[in-house]
Amino acid sequence: FLGRFFGDKRMASSSLGLVSFLNDIPRLVIIDEPPAVWYKDTGRKDTFMSFTVRLEGSIPKVGRWQVGVDLYFEDRKRVEERFQSILRFSEATPSTQTLSKVQRTAKFDVRIEKVYAMPNLFGRNP
Fold first, then answer.
1. Which neighbouring-strand residues pair with 65?
2. CA 26, CA 79: separation in Å to the nearest integer?
3. How far apart are CA 93 and CA 24, in angstroms?
4. Rounded distance, CA 2 to CA 34, Å?
5. Residues 101, 85: Cα–Cα separation, whole Å
6. pLDDT tens for each residue of the chain, 126 residues long
7. What are residue 23's phi and psi, to 5 degrees?
């Protein structure tokens, strides 16, 4: 489309080449998102947030990527390491998984085990 916009066929072909190049770069894509809001179940331990990721692009035969889950605040700051342990994974899905050319998808089932109401627990104001 850039070639038509600028009237230059060379621009179109080089732009398409760039798009093709970018599509070949290995990247992780969320294909099944967790719910936007999740409520901790009362008295039950079997409700998990589930999501699936897929490795896309041109993957080398020897390429392997270890993927896992960390807990972050809404402002995209990572929760301190000492509090990451409140994440619990179902027995069916491990906390870290290896992706490769052969195994491109990983499903995670995770829940937040403890929700604290104490101010400044994570170094933040309530």
1. 99
2. 27
3. 28
4. 36
5. 30
6. 333 334 444 444 444 555 555 667 888 888 988 877 776 665 566 778 888 999 988 888 888 888 888 888 889 899 899 888 888 888 888 889 999 999 999 999 988 877 665 445 555 554
7. -70, -20
Contact 21, 13 (CB under 8 A): no
Asked if residue 52 lies in contact with residue 31, where contact means CB atoms within 8 angstroms, the answer is: yes
Tell me the H-state helices in 1-126: 2-6, 9-24
Only one residue has tokens 């390491």, namely: 81
Question: What is the DSSP-derived secondary structure letter of residue 83?
Answer: G
Q: How far apart are CA 104 and CA 53, in angstroms?
A: 8
Q: Tokens for 37?
A: 């809001």
The tokens describing 99, both together, are 């992706």
What one-character-per-residue DSSP string does 35-88 give? PSS-PPPSS-S---EEEEEEEES---TT-EEEEE---B-TTSPBPPGGGGGGEE
